[in-house]
Amino acid sequence: MRKVDLGWTRIFVEAARCGSLSEAAARLNITQPAVSYQIRRAEAEFGTPLLRRLHRGVELTDAGRRLFDILAREVDQIDRLAEDLRRGPAKTMLRLFTDYAFSALWLIPRIERFRAAWPEFDLQVIATQRTDPAQLQAGDLAVIFGRGADLGRGAVPLLPEVVVPVRAAGFAAGLAQAPLIHLDSQQHPPPWFTWADYFAAFGMEREPRTDRGDLRFNTYSLVIEAALAGQGVALGWRGLIEPFVDRGLLIPAGPELAARDGGAGDRGYHMLPGGGDTEGLQRWLLAECAAHVMARR
């Protein structure tokens, strides 16, 4: 038995769905005579009418309905398969856990470089105040602020804690007289340099103020936003504030204090690899942070 030529299949299905040869032609971006020709070919293949011509449009005959029920499913399945194949294999999802400050101030300005270098991965950034290393799974990676000894053997140093007082370009008060912007912590003592640590390290004393009080926030991003708005002087964490300093939006207002010099050892941002497919992300984080550290030497 001669095999049926199926070159008219999509045109027949579209015409049946539209109930109009002209509308089917428009949807398929071909001419109406071309649609009519292919329908005639299909009817010649089966030796029976498949569409009934009406005053306006067309409708399926009984034979056409039986054929449509078979072909419509097949055409839809082929379209879905083509879409899946053209899209390619699903990308591997990497999850990066870190705090709000690192994600907003360090990661976001640089993240496009990772996406360009590793297009085969999707990256989900999960910003949280506290990350439990025990909860990391394959494909997870964490960047956590703290001491390496407290974070475990697998902790890899990324950015050492180095702070410098910063103020907005138009803010004129001196360090000893300026209102200060503090980062609060639920831990005591706080796990980072405070203003008390800074003044003690340099033997400085702060002059009392009566005209304006200090500001306190529980999120470092808000500390920097307040400094940018000229609300006072903040302790800027090197590595996070460089874009604002480079553009002249924040001005250093005093000497730097580093963890290694202030008795805090290796305190700073550390990477905790979670295994799986995170090797590329690990290498990228290390390279970006190393470039920053080298640029400051």
TrEMBL record:
Pfam families: HTH_1 (PF00126), LysR_substrate (PF03466). The keyword ATP-binding does not apply. GO terms for biological process: DNA-templated transcription. GO terms for molecular function: DNA-binding transcription factor activity; sequence-specific DNA binding. SUPFAM superfamilies: Periplasmic binding protein-like II, Winged helix' DNA-binding domain. Residues 4-61 form the HTH lysR-type domain. Keywords: DNA-binding, Transcription, Transcription regulation. Belongs to the LysR transcriptional regulatory family. This is LysR family transcriptional regulator. The lineage of its organism: Bacteria, Pseudomonadati, Pseudomonadota, Alphaproteobacteria, Rhodobacterales.
